[in-house]
Amino acid sequence: MKKNAIIITITSIVLLAGGTVGARVGYMSSNTKDYSNVIYPKVAVESIDLSGKTKDEAVKLLEEKYGSEVVKKKITITGADKTYTIDYSKLNAKYNIEETVNEAMAYGKNLGLFERYRLIKTPEQKIYKLKFSYDAKPVKGIITAIQQETDKSPVNAKIAMVSSGKFSVTPEKNGLKLNVDELEKSINDKISGDLSGDIEVKAPIEVVQASVTSEALSKVNTKISSFSTSFSGSSANRIANISLATKSISGKLLMPGESFSFNDVVGQRTAAKGYKEAPVIVNNKLDSGLGGGICQVSTTLYNAVMRANINATERSHHSLPSHYVALGLDATVDYGNLDYKFKNTLSFPIFIEGIISGNNIAFNVYSDKSLSSRTYDLVSETTDTMQPNTKYIDDPNMYEGETKIEQPSSIGYKVKVYKKIYENGKLIGQETISSETYNKVDGVIRRGTKKKEQ
């Protein structure tokens, strides 16, 4: 009997405990169920407390605080003489609000009953951060627009001869260049989800200096050398060619270190440009060719430039001596084959003036007055003479006593060319410029052997 009483007592205790536990579990389950569709206590996104909020309520709160505010921001870029604006709305700027709210909603929901209950009754602060994103393409677009309106190429100073030896200088204009990479980096570095204020950026604009300045051109103020040759007795066509080529060169400016090419400056000698047929040297004899007489222009220029103490970097003499200049002082040209070139090795710019006057062609070289105390002259010395031979060819188709020159003969010469250096009119030195050889040309004469009928 006593044993049965003990069993009944134990059973009652177990049932009572089970009932208590069941009631407790039911209570916890009820509490956690209340948070099934809302966010747990003390859960926030940024500074917004979302405790007990549904997803829609949370999204609405965050959109009002962040989503609608961020698109009101703008970026102001200060250019050279204009400001440019990009609205955040154009950047498709936004926060990942819905994604973050989903994370906040999911917080704690995958835990067991007791853990979920604990998070509700004794919550711990949980803060989620919004992520900001935007489309960078509009940034590139406005930078391109700024560049197009900003970039300006520099304009070099210009010099013009208003009368012989008198010059007018037009000042240079510096250019501007936008540093595109630096501006893009500066804008992208400053774009953020910070709602505290608009963004201001100063466009990095560099000044591009003109390569030719009025200060440099002001140094062209004195004639430092001159040379002329005569074309007296030339045909009208030859004179026309000389005049046309001289006009192409006159007014040419060369800064220190710049190079000159006769063929590049004068260009190809064509009928379309006005060049005419005139005598030229072909295969050691005179023939007719387009642009005949051009070599007198290159020769005259060569002598003027050499007397400015600027040596040739490319130059060839004729195969035959020229009548208008001393041996060793000529410079032949042939477009595509032979050129006359030089580089301005002076410390100042040079200006070349070409003049046709009467039966003469002249070139004057102008530069800084400080160079005028020293002058230069070229002289040639014939060191050997080679007499040509004459070959006769009997021609049965020509009558006896008749002759025809097949190849004119020409004496050969060996020549040395010197540059004499004068300081204030006094000879102070001499340099050997070149050793030249004009090969002799043997003559060929065709003579008749045919008998004349009696």
Brief sketch in words of this structure:
The chain has 454 residues and is an alpha+beta fold. It is built from ten helices and 27 strands. It has a four-stranded antiparallel sheet with strand order 13-21-20-14. Strands 2-1-6 form a three-stranded mixed sheet, covered by helices on one side.
Radius of gyration: 48 Å
Uncertain spans: 13-19
**Spatial order of the strands forming the largest sheet:** 13-21-20-14
What's the helical proportion of residues? 25-40%
How many domains comprise the coordinates? 3
Q: What is the average of the pLDDT values?
A: 91
Q: What kind of assembly state do the chains in view correspond to?
A: single chain
- Structure class: alpha+beta
Outline type:
elongated
Number of strands: 27
Largest sheet, in brief, is: 4 strands, antiparallel
How many distinct helices?
A: 10
Measure the end-to-end span: 188 Å
The proportion of residues in beta strands is 25-35%
Describe this structure in words.
It is a single chain. By secondary structure, this protein is an alpha+beta fold. It has three domains: 32-213, no CATH class; 219-367, no CATH class; 373-454, Resuscitation-promoting factor rpfb fold (Single Sheet). It has helices at residues 2-33, 55-70, 97-106, 113-121, 137-150, 180-190, 214-217, 236-249, 262-266, 294-306; strands spanning 43-45, 48-49, 74-78, 83-87, 94-95, 126-128, 132-133, 158-163, 166-170, 175-178, 199-202, 205-208, 222-230, 252-254, 259-261, 277-282, 285-290, 312-314, 341-343, 350-357, 360-367, 374-386, 390-399, 403-407, 412-423, 426-438, 443-450. The protein has a four-stranded antiparallel β-sheet with strand order 13-21-20-14. It has a three-stranded mixed β-sheet with strand order 2-1-6, with helices on one face. Strand 3 (74-78) and strand 4 (83-87) form a beta hairpin. Helix 5 runs antiparallel to helix 6 (180-190). Mean pLDDT is 91; it is low at 13-19.
